[in-house]
């Protein structure tokens, strides 16, 4: 039985993928490299270094690319909560679930967004992309969050929701129930192939399904 629920951020709780795409397009244009939605989907990785290498960015220009991205991404308007997310998190917390965040996003970008959108209070444990030297699908970010919640020795009693295949690979590696959230980067079939036990169209839809199972 699920007792702890952890979430990805971008594309799962917040609608930020279009802003992320635009910032990456600025990077690729500045480097003179091809980029479109298909290439973004084909080469996406939770670790931006891996993604840029896949897209052809030379190793010696990775830091330049990261600086260009940071300047192009509008942190103030780059993420909007999906409708109903705040209520869903509040409902899950009220029902007694322990909630946390495991994101590839850096702390300086995501933490202000959490507070701006009023959901930080529900996510008692947070692991950011710059907290560790390894990134999804490596299991360590999720393991760290589970340990902080007190579920390090019982990952099967936790659920992780994310919108890309690397999220599901991480959950599978840890032994946590993976729920794929369909997005422009997460085709349902690809999420299932990567290890998702189930797929939902949104966090809100899934949380309603969970509550329905408990009360039905």
| Main sheet strand line-up | 5-4-1-6-7-8
Please write the string of helix (H) and strand (E) elements: EEHHHHEHEHEHEHEHEH
CATH topology-level fold name of the largest domain: Rossmann fold
Compute the gyration radius: what is it?
Answer: 17 Å
Number of E strands: 8
What's the N-to-C terminus distance? 16 Å
Return the CATH class of the largest domain: Alpha Beta
Oligomer: single chain
Number of contiguous helices:
10
Task: Give the overall silhouette.
Answer: globular
Q: Tell me the β content.
A: 5-15%
Secondary structure: helix percent: 40-55%
Query: Based on the structure given, which CATH architecture of the largest domain is correct?
Result: 3-Layer(aba) Sandwich
Explain this structure.
This protein is of the alpha/beta class. It folds into two domains: 149 residues, HAD superfamily/HAD-like (Rossmann fold), CATH 3.40.50.1000; 56 residues. The protein contains ten helices and eight strands. α5 runs parallel beside α10. The longest helix is centred in the N-terminal third of the chain and has 15 residues. The chain is globular and about 50 Å long.
């Amino acid at each position: 039985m699920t007792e702890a629920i952890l979430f990805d951020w971008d594309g799962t709780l917040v609608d930020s993928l279009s802003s992320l795409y635009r910032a990456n397009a600025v990077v690729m244009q500045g480097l003179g490299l091809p980029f479109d939605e298909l290439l973004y989907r084909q080469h996406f990785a939770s670790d931006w270094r891996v993604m840029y290498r896949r897209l052809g960015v030379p190793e010696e220009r990775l830091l330049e690319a990261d600086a260009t991205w940071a300047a192009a991404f509008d942190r103030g308007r780059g993420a909007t909560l999906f409708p109903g997310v705040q209520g869903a998190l509040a409902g899950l917390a009220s029902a007694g679930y322990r909630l946390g965040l495991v994101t590839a996003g850096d702390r300086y970008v995501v933490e202000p967004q959490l507070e701006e959108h009023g959901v930080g209070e529900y996510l008692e444990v947070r692991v950011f992309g710059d907290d560790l030297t390894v990134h999804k699908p490596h299991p360590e970010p999720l393991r760290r969050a589970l340990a902080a919640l007190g579920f390090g020795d019982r990952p099967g009693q936790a659920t992780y929701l994310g919108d890309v295949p690397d999220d599901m690979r991480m959950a599978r590696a840890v032994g946590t129930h993976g729920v794929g959230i369909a997005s422009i980067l997460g085709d349902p079939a690809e999420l299932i192939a990567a290890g998702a036990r189930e797929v939902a169209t949104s966090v809100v839809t899934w949380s309603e399904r969970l509550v329905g199972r408990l009360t039905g």
